[in-house]
């Protein structure tokens, strides 16, 4: 699944044998993200967006198209569907 936006960003659902997560592709990364393509995300990071996790690769990382994967994506573990809430802990 690839959703493109007018501001040179798109959201893609990416995954491996452990689960899936929404990846926010930016600028030149958008052209590499096509449904069914296998990519390697190097130095990726997690951003929080409205209480859920999104994967992103900034200027320190790389997105590379690679050979087709030899594993099946675990589609029943979408980490972006888990909602997190910031809780302040008061130390006594």
UniProtKB/TrEMBL annotation:
Residues in Single-stranded DNA binding protein Ssb-like OB fold domain copies: 11-65
Classification via Pfam families: OB_Ssb-like
Gene3D superfamilies per the UniProt record, alphabetical: Nucleic acid-binding proteins
Record InterPro entries: NA-bd_OB-fold, OB_Ssb-like
SUPFAM superfamilies for this protein: Nucleic acid-binding proteins
Protein name: Single-stranded DNA binding protein Ssb-like OB fold domain-containing protein
Organism: Hevea brasiliensis (Para rubber tree)
């Amino acid at each position: 699944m690839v959703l493109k936006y007018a501001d040179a960003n798109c959201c893609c659902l990416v995954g491996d044998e452990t689960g899936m997560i929404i990846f926010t592709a930016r600028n030149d990364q958008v052209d590499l993200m096509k449904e069914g393509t296998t990519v390697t995300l190097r130095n990726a990071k997690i951003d929080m967006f409205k209480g859920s996790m999104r994967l992103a690769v900034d200027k320190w990382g790389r997105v590379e198209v690679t050979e087709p994967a030899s594993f099946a994506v675990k589609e029943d573990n979408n980490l972006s569907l888990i909602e997190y809430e910031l809780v302040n802990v008061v130390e006594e």
